[in-house]
Amino acid sequence: MLDRDTQELLTRIGPGTRMGSLLRRYWMPLLPSVDLPPDNTRGVRLLGENLTAFRTRDGTLGLLAERCPHRGCALTVGCVDGQGLRCAYHGWRFATDGRCLDLPAEPKDSPLYRRVQATAYPVAEMGGLIFAYLGPSPAPLLPRFDLFVWDHVLRDIGIAELPCNWLQIMENSVDPHHVEWLHGWYFKQVASQQGLPAAPAYHKKHIKVGFDLFEYGIIKRRIVTGQTEADDDWRIGHPLIFPIMVRVGSNGQHVFQIRVPIDDRHTRHFWYTCWRPLAGIKVPIQESVPSYSVPWQNEGGGFMVDTIPGQDIMTWVSQGAIADRTTEQLASSDIGVTLFRKLLLSQLGVVERNEDPIGVLRDPEQNHLIALPQEGDRFGGGKAFFDDLLSVGHSRYSPIRDKVRALFGDSAR
């Protein structure tokens, strides 16, 4: 268990907090590109800060603190005007870098033009996502991780806003033993009780688990029944990309699960999926990457537990808005959770020495395409497993399910 001070340190991420300072050293997904068309604004909350994102007619992105520095009106209700954002209240107009461009009621030579500055943040676009950087200057490079920049793939982005702290979601990513129970034994109970078809066979017992640090975070390894250390699950494993991502996938589906802290008690969860068929299969051109909601509550407000993400969300949210680690009883099987917490604490020290934490990039030569390690087929493969991806995974709700099914019609058999 943690003492109260460490519990508070790890979970509080707002402005001025130590953990907030660490997380602000990384680019964070803000929203899907399709959700911010030209000439539009969008209010977004990130790391406890209210922000206004906007896109000009020519596609240029801007990100400002929500409140106009004049009288505090929300810039989200303003209008894009040329290369800037104009406040609805008195017409003050701000550039993407926060400079004041127009003060309609003031003289053209007013000193306010030099003094007034809206708080602006770096913003960038990659792979159908808009990213923001809220940390100190100079901003590091936006890492070009493989799924964001691969060619010849279909992509979609699932999103759920969850009423719980980001840390309990990330700790799940270094807890491999939950797979055989939550997504195996428990899933069978749910299927039986609800009269559903047989649940996916995620039932293989974990014989051995391991975790190693690497340049972008933690490599997770496992051996399940019938495997040895020569199998991909142990030899290669898959990565937790510090501090808020994990990469999983199999059979042509490759997924970044990204847990973006909205504030201390809310997290925006992205399932960023690349559908990559076997070589030689032509992938249709995708003009834009669609986004969709991943539901997790039924009509009565209860948890939806007939899907893998629904089961995960049930465990995260049911721990409370901020899981109380002062009362937990960790076991030897929780070595991954312990390692992740130690890594967070060590990187806090790195930041407080004014150094770059793990995974922060500044050399363009290292950022052409970052290929991350990923084991091959994890649970048996074949058409049955592929069909499970479209029935009990987050992709059950994807608007491109039919395109994906057509794309993999041959290779999934």
What are the SSEs and their pairings?
Layout: H1 4-11, H2 18-23, E1 28-32, E2 40-46, E3 49-55, E4 61-65, E5 79-81, E6 84-86, E7 93-95, E8 100-102, H3 112-115, E9 123-126, E10 129-132, H4 146-149, E11 154-162, H5 166-172, H6 178-194, E12 206-214, E13 217-224, H7 232-235, E14 238-241, E15 245-250, E16 253-263, E17 266-275, E18 291-293, H8 308-318, H9 335-352, H10 382-389, H11 401-407
Parallel strand pairs: 11-18
Antiparallel strand pairs: 1-10, 2-3, 3-4, 5-6, 6-7, 7-8, 9-10, 11-17, 12-13, 13-14, 14-15, 15-16, 16-17
Overview of this protein structure:
With 413 residues, this protein is of the alpha+beta class. The chain has 2 domains: 27-132, Rieske [2Fe-2S] iron-sulphur domain (Rieske Iron-sulfur Protein), CATH 2.102.10; 146-407, Naphthalene 1,2-dioxygenase Alpha Subunit, Chain A, domain 1 (Alpha-Beta Complex), CATH 3.90.380. Helices cover 23% and strands 25% of the residues. It is built from 11 helices and 18 strands. It has helices at 4-11, 18-23, 112-115, 146-149, 166-172, 178-194, 232-235, 308-318, 335-352, 382-389, 401-407; strands at 28-32, 40-46, 49-55, 61-65, 79-81, 84-86, 93-95, 100-102, 123-126, 129-132, 154-162, 206-214, 217-224, 238-241, 245-250, 253-263, 266-275, 291-293. An 8-stranded mixed sheet has the order 12-13-14-15-16-17-11-18. β12 and β13 form a beta hairpin. The longest helix has 18 residues, at 335-352. The radius of gyration is 23 Å and the shape is globular. The mean pLDDT is 93.
